Amino acid sequence: MSLRSAADPQFQRPLTRLIDRAAGPLDLQGFEAENGYAGLKKAIKELTPAQVQAIVKDANLRGRGGAGFPAGVKWSLVPMGPDAGEKYLVCNADEMEPGTFKDRLLMEQAPHQLIESMILVGYAIQATRGYIFLRGEYVVAADRLNKALKEARAAGYVGKNVLGGEWSFELFVHTGAGRYICGEETALINSLEGRRANPRAKPPFPQLAGLWGRPTVVNNVETLMNVPHIVINGADWFKGLSQGKSKDAGTKMYGCSGRANKPGTWELPIGTTARELLEVHAGGMRDGKKLKAWLPGGASTDFLLPEHLDLAMDFDTIAKAGSRMGTGLIAVVAEDQSIVSAVRNLEEFFARESCGWCTPCRDGLPWSVKILRAFENGQGQVEDIEVLSKLTKWLGPGKTFCAHAPGAMEPLQSALKYFRHEFEAGLASAQVKAAEFAKPAVAA
Amino acid sequence: MTDTIVKLADLVKPAAPNSPPQPFVLSDEERHEIEHELEHYPDSRAASIEALKIVQKHRGWVCDEAIPVIAAAVNISAADLEGVATFYNLIFRQPVGRHVIKVCDSISCHLTGYDELRDSLIQTLGVRLGGTTPDDRFTLLPICCLGACDRGACLMIDDDLHGPVEPAQVKAMLEAYK
Question: Are A101 and A29 in contact (CB under 8 A)?
């Protein structure tokens, strides 16, 4: 189905309206013909940076990278004025949260939209330079973004005196060399500086002292891409996009992966239910299996149950249910799949991707993996359930340098809460009992 | 099967060859590309990862002898660059095959057949995760979520994304990479 142009006069899918996977991304001319760069032109010609910030703050655009922090508030901490000096805008395009594949689509299919957004937000915070930090494996996105950037530079959107005004802005695509931790914004800044991607202590926050010690804003791809549309159509329009499904504003790139019939990613009003994602858009569970559990938005979110499917997928509603919306792309586990194995897989991921900086994370995560493997192989010990439970505290919020290990503990703590019986079935003692039960009666 | 967490840094390095190591010299092309990258940053150090990737693009991997030379090009110490080079999993510090297979082992692929795909790859190639085939054709590596979860179980061969891949398709898929 083509989402391009007149198909949607209501602009209900601002982020994906111009996406036509079969045709590929629009070039500069095609993008401009579809109102591309109009938001940037409006901002630079008609609005002050403070006015752009105010519109976005009013629109209540919350960060789409997973944390949901209001973008306008984030920007408002950046020092402004003629003496503010070098400032940087960084796009977090290091999409590596397991189960998340939305930014790939946006960047591969709408590269100019991201370039325009970077320049516009650069203007709003009066940044001197911007970097798109793209994960190394996204080779198609890198190619298309670089091509779009070249076109934008030639057209005067990037470089000295953008659109003939006083403000100048340089923009670069920086590709990474792996490691999930680069998605953590201060680790990303270290990586961009050419260092090991260890997170930095906060405060100071990057808005005051970030890249090369200068004020820096780091925003997710999807977050940034909303901005030109908000500038053109206004805050009230953006709030209306959720169609009353949520008190959060805008659309959201949702998705579904795992054992579903038609996995995919879709732009929908924020607050759409997980049931609609799974049953309508993803065509339900594969092979007629029942849903056992689901992750709302990536590996670092707590499992939820089928009974939670009717909750609005927004930041506050999913938080109230004891999880996090995260990136908003759900992963579904079928009734015949093991939660212990799924959690083992998740913790293996987090153990491998730990940067090793702080002890609870570096040593605690492999410990959890060792125990989970034992349960998976029917070698679990009774006290190990308690150890796992303690690990969720020892590696929890406040105990580690960054949010990596606390994020890793979210699926584990919810698995222990909802599926304790599956852990108990993995106890070595349970195997002995089961074996005895299955032993055939001795023939007389 | 996967009873350890495979990290490149953990893998045993091959024994040093008998011939004395040749002095490492950047090619004009490599030097030119690194100098181009340096222009993108106010601090030369920021080009260090890109410089490592440039050398790897031309030579397949980054040998120990290359480290001080690349470090000098980005104006940091060799020890500093070594720390960077060993941190990132897409920088290869030992020889890899002509084609590198990166098989996604994260949750969505785990739920859609990673175990079977991995076993099929191991069986077809005759190497374990982290290994290179004796003919230097393929290196098999696990990789974290490739952001193609709607195509799980998925993998990348060099720059090509494949998915969903059924275990039975592995042999035919590999035939395209000589």
Answer: no
